């Protein structure tokens, strides 16, 4: 007999347990270019032909997407809603669907979570799979970082004291948008993005797109192994610690300390956990993504990050939030 007081939680459990159904429908539609096909209305038969698919699967998928509100169905014709036309048609300036491509990169490994918890993450390394070998997959990943980080980059810059900052190093800067936002706040700043070669091809696309040529340059390097050079007033590590072990994070923070000018500061921006390690919930759930997709990464807490900074020699810490699940810590080199 189900207790009345439990029925709400049972509904939640069933919804969470089957959450991958709707997730897979949306991800598959993006992979199959369904939204590109439905800029003009089409029958299921016409969509199947366009995407090189079978009629049965195409029709079932189209009806589910209609039920989920991403497309409309009138008589036998399907077409995009205004939302999907704006955000899910590839190649449009307003396209926000790269994240769906990125989730497709990860979801097969998520299916192995039981084995990963039992046996460890083995050799699953997102970086090795894509970032060092596959330019197209790297572009999907870095486009996702750009699309998801547009607002956060502006919020972070608005919360930082950038007075007197001239030289910035953006370690694992990806598309470079956090540097762009700092430059927009303080036009004196010149920034360097240190990242892997395939990523930097995409960085250069965004430097051009955002008119940052001459203000942002790039250096190829591995952030755990290579030297960061010297002469920076601010070093940013945004969303890079979580894919690494605490030992490698310490290495990166030590390198940053050496590369900074006296009086310079390090800024760590991350999905930060509270000391209980389960709040905020998004940061705890993101940590499972790191368990699945990296060898030794995880979400870290503000106190773990601050203690790495202390060990490197940083002082005068300040921290704050950027979103519900992300926050920053600033430390100074005296
Ligand atoms: C999650 S993204 C963060 C991008 C950006 N900093 C942001 O906050 O949106 C991680 C970045 O680290 C880079 N990266 C991963 N492994 C690296 C390595 N070993 N050396 C240098 N960069 C690396 C990736 O190419 C990517 O740009």
TrEMBL record:
Residues annotated as catalytic: 242 (proton acceptor)
One example GO MF annotation: protein dimerization activity
One Gene Ontology biological process: methylation
Keyword terms of this UniProt record: Methyltransferase, S-adenosyl-L-methionine, Transferase
All residue ranges annotated as the O-methyltransferase dimerisation domain in the record: 18-89
Pfam families given in the database record: Dimerisation, Methyltransf_2
Domain O-methyltransferase C-terminal: 110-315
InterPro entries in the cross-refs: COMT-like, COMT_C, COMT_dimerisation, SAM-dependent_MTases_sf, WH-like_DNA-bd_sf, WH_DNA-bd_sf
UniProt-listed PROSITE patterns: SAM_OMT_II (PS51683)
Cleavable signal peptide: none
Protein name: Methyltransferase
Species this chain originates from: Candidatus Schekmanbacteria bacterium RIFCSPLOWO2_12_FULL_38_15
């Amino acid at each position: 007999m189900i207790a009345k007081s439990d029925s709400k939680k049972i509904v939640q459990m069933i919804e969470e347990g089957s959450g991958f159904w709707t997730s897979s429908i949306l991800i598959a539609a993006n992979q199959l270019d369904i939204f590109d096909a439905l800029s003009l209305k089409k029958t299921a038969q016409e969509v199947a032909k366009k995407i090189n698919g079978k009629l049965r699967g195409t029709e079932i998928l189209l009806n589910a997407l209609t039920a989920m509100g991403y497309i409309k169905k009138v008589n036998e014709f399907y077409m995009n809603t205004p939302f999907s036309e704006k955000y899910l048609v590839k190649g449009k300036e307003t396209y926000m669907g790269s994240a769906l491509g990125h989730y497709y990169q990860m979801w097969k490994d998520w299916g192995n979570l039981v084995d990963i918890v039992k046996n460890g993450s083995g050799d699953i390394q997102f970086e090795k799979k894509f970032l060092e070998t596959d330019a197209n997959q790297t572009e999907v990943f870095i486009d996702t970082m750009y699309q998801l980080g547009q607002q956060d980059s502006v919020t972070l810059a608005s919360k930082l004291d950038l007075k007197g900052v001239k030289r910035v190093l953006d370690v694992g800067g990806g598309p470079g948008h956090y540097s762009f936002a700092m430059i927009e706040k303080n036009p004196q700043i010149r920034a360097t993005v240190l990242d892997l070669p395939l990523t930097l091809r995409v960085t250069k696309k965004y430097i051009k797109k955002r008119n940052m040529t001459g203000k942002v340059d790039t250096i190829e390097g591995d952030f755990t192994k290579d030297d960061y050079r010297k002469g920076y007033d601010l070093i940013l590590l945004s969303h890079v610690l979580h894919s690494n072990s605490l030992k490698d994070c310490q290495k990166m923070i030590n390198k940053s300390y050496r590369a900074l000018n006296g009086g310079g500061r390090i800024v760590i921006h991350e999905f930060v956990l509270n000391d209980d390690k389960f709040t905020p919930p998004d940061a705890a759930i993101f940590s499972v993504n790191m368990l699945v997709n990296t060898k030794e990464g995880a979400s870290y807490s503000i106190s773990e990050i601050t203690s790495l900074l202390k060990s490197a020699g940083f002082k005068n810490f300040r921290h704050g939030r950027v979103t519900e699940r992300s926050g920053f810590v600033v430390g100074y080199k005296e």
